Amino acid sequence: MRKYYRIARPGRWYGGICAADCVGCNLKCLFCWSNFPRDHPESTGKFYTPAQVYSALKECALSHGYDRIRVSGNEPTIGRRHLLELLELVEVDGKLYFILETNGILIGYDKSYARDLSRYSRLHVRVSIKACNEEEFHRITGAKPEAFKLQLNALRNLLDYNVSFHPAIMVSFCSDESLRNLIEVLAEIDSRLPSLLEPEYVILYPHVVERLRRAGIKPRISYTP
Question: Is the pTM of this model over 0.85?
Answer without folding.
Answer: yes
